[in-house]
Design brief:
This protein has 182 residues and is mainly beta. The strands form 2 sheets. Strands 1, 2, 4, 5, 6, 8, 10 and 11 form an 8-stranded antiparallel sheet that branches. The protein has a domain at 41-153: Glucose Permease (Domain IIA) (Distorted Sandwich), CATH 2.70.70. The chain has 3 helices and 11 strands, in the order αβββββββββββαα. The chain is globular. Strand 4 and strand 5 (86-92) form a beta hairpin.
Length: 182
C-alpha cells in the first residue's frame, strides 16, 4: 500500500513523505508495572454494572511474599495504612488518577512524593485475594470511577467496530447490536 502511494505520488509530481509503520505499540510514558517481571495477571478487571454491586475493581498480579512493590506512576502518597486490617498504599498522580496497592506493608506516609518504579513497600500475604499465595491487588480510579489499571500500560490495542450490523460476520466476532435487543 505504501509502495502504491509512492508510485501514484511520483506520477502526479506530488511531494510525498511516508512515515515508517510502527513495529510495536509503545507504552504510555510515565507508567510501569507495580511488580518486577515476570508479570502474570491472576484475575482481571471486572467492574460491576452498578457501583453498589459486587465486582473486581482492579487486577490481581501474582507475586511472592516480601517482593518489592513499585509505584506504577509518579505522584504523591495519598494514603498508607490499614483498611479493614489490610495494609494499603494509594498514590495520587498529577493527572487526577489514583492507584491503589494491597496488601502492601510500607514505611511511606501520606504526602511523600514517589516516582515511577520507586519501591513503595513489600507484598504480604495478609489480605491477599489469592490466599494462601501472595498477589498484589492493583486498582485505579478517576474520581469515583474504577478503571482497568492495565490500560496504563497500553497493552491492548483498541479495535473499533462498525455501528451497524455486518450480518453473519457479527456472530464470528461477538458483536451485539443493542438496538435489535430493544
Amino acid at each position: 500500500m505504501r509502495l502504491l502511494a509512492a508510485v501514484v505520488g511520483a506520477l502526479l509530481g506530488l511531494p510525498l513523505t511516508i512515515a515508517p509503520a510502527p513495529r510495536t505499540v509503545a507504552p504510555i510514558p510515565g507508567w510501569g508495572w507495580p511488580l518486577p517481571a515476570p508479570h502474570h495477571v491472576v484475575r482481571g478487571f471486572d467492574p460491576p454494572p452498578q457501583p453498589w454491586l459486587p465486582g473486581h475493581r482492579g487486577v490481581d498480579l501474582a507475586g511472592s511474599p516480601g517482593e518489592p512493590v513499585l509505584a506504577a506512576g509518579s505522584g504523591v502518597v495519598w494514603f498508607a495504612g490499614r483498611v479493614a486490617r489490610i495494609p494499603v498504599v494509594s498514590i495520587r498522580h498529577p493527572d487526577g488518577l489514583l492507584t491503589t496497592y494491597q496488601p502492601v506493608r510500607s514505611r511511606l506516609t501520606a504526602g511523600e512524593p514517589v516516582r515511577v518504579g520507586q519501591p513503595i513497600g513489600h507484598l504480604v500475604v495478609l489480605g491477599s485475594h489469592c490466599t494462601p499465595a501472595a498477589c498484589l491487588h492493583w486498582g485505579l480510579r478517576r474520581g469515583h470511577d474504577y478503571l482497568d489499571p492495565l490500560a496504563l500500560l497500553h497493552l491492548n490495542p483498541v479495535r473499533l467496530l462498525p455501528l451497524q450490523s455486518l450480518g453473519p460476520v457479527d456472530d464470528q466476532v461477538g458483536v451485539v447490536d443493542r438496538r435489535r435487543e430493544q
